[in-house]
Amino acid sequence: MADLAPHELRVLVAVERERGFSAAAAALGMTQSAVSHSVRGSERKIGAVLFERGRQGARPTEAGVRAVGHARRILRLLDVMGAEARGAGEDTVASPLRIAAFRSAALHLLPPALERLTARHPGIEPVVRVVRELGPGVAGEVAAGRADLGIATIGTTSPVPRELVGSVLVEEPYALVHPAGHPDPRSLPLVDWAENCTSYTREWWARQDWIPRATVEAEDDGAVLSMVSHGLGMAIMPELSLVGAPDRVEITDLGAERPTRSVGYVATPEQARTLAVRALIRELRAGSS
């Protein structure tokens, strides 16, 4: 297979991102015919159809999804190569550091680590995106090359994907959260959100005959906490979600058999060796020790 040049990789990424050849051409300052010619050339070199063309634009095939993910990762490594070469000899780097994290990790786990990181490496510019832990979730963003490092839910029941590396940073317990002073909080209706009851808690939930089916579904854990504080029900929530909980809620330990959630970092093997990612991992570990 002939090698793809960086400009060909950028075209593939733009077509996938813009969902069409015309929009990709506009974003890249190229003509539509030049974009089409580049994609056809890349498909010939790879030996697979990368995009389905139609009236609605261009959608990546399964091969295209994989190819574009690799393209993003390669282009990012080229950026990192230049940044690290310019900082050689000073053990520093000046470049953006793209981070994906689920909501409570972005709110409470990342900020102190980023504060220490930027104090030691002022040239690093963190760019944080909040990603819902549904479907591919945070790990999917990293695997697709859209983030250099992710803070994700991982563990024995949510393992690090094979193409990534990672490690657990904290084990956070779940607790019963209910309106303060309620005489029988387990009698209240359940308030929940889609990201909560995933594989690491599902078996525990199934054994609890006192937990009813959720009657209120909220967008995220912050909305759940607000609803509980206003007396609309009780919730089962992990520790990170309870940082800064309002005075109107009470947090009750669920006992020795309580479920826990493993939170850690994930990165591609190549990004895990870069200066900026290694520096952030050190700060995350320091904060969780």
In short:
The chain has helices at 6-18, 21-28, 32-46, 62-86, 103-120, 137-143, 199-207, 221-229, 269-272, 275-288; strands at 51-54, 57-60, 95-101, 124-130, 149-153, 165-179, 191-193, 216-218, 235-238, 249-253, 260-267.
Topology:
Elements: H1 6-18, H2 21-28, H3 32-46, E1 51-54, E2 57-60, H4 62-86, E3 95-101, H5 103-120, E4 124-130, H6 137-143, E5 149-153, E6 165-179, E7 191-193, H7 199-207, E8 216-218, H8 221-229, E9 235-238, E10 249-253, E11 260-267, H9 269-272, H10 275-288
Parallel strand pairs: 3-4, 3-5, 7-8
Antiparallel strand pairs: 1-2, 5-11, 6-9, 6-10, 6-11
Helix pairs in contact: 1-2, 1-3, 1-4, 2-3, 5-10
Question: What features would you describe in this structure?
Answer:
The mean pLDDT is 92. The protein has helices at residues 6-18, 21-28, 32-46, 62-86, 103-120, 137-143, 199-207, 221-229, 269-272, 275-288, and strands at residues 51-54, 57-60, 95-101, 124-130, 149-153, 165-179, 191-193, 216-218, 235-238, 249-253, 260-267. It folds into 3 domains: 6-70, Winged helix-like DNA-binding domain superfamily/Winged helix DNA-binding domain (Arc Repressor Mutant, subunit A, Orthogonal Bundle); 101-169 and 263-283, D-Maltodextrin-Binding Protein, domain 2 (3-Layer(aba) Sandwich), CATH 3.40.190.10; 171-261, 3-Layer(aba) Sandwich (D-Maltodextrin-Binding Protein, domain 2), CATH 3.40.190.10. The strands form 3 sheets. Strands 3, 4, 5, 6, 9, 10 and 11 form a 7-stranded mixed β-sheet that branches. The N and C termini lie far apart (47 Å). A hairpin with a 2-residue loop joins β1 and β2 (57-60). α1 (6-18) crosses α3 (32-46) and α1 (6-18) packs across α4. The protein is globular, with a radius of gyration of 22 Å. It is an alpha/beta fold.
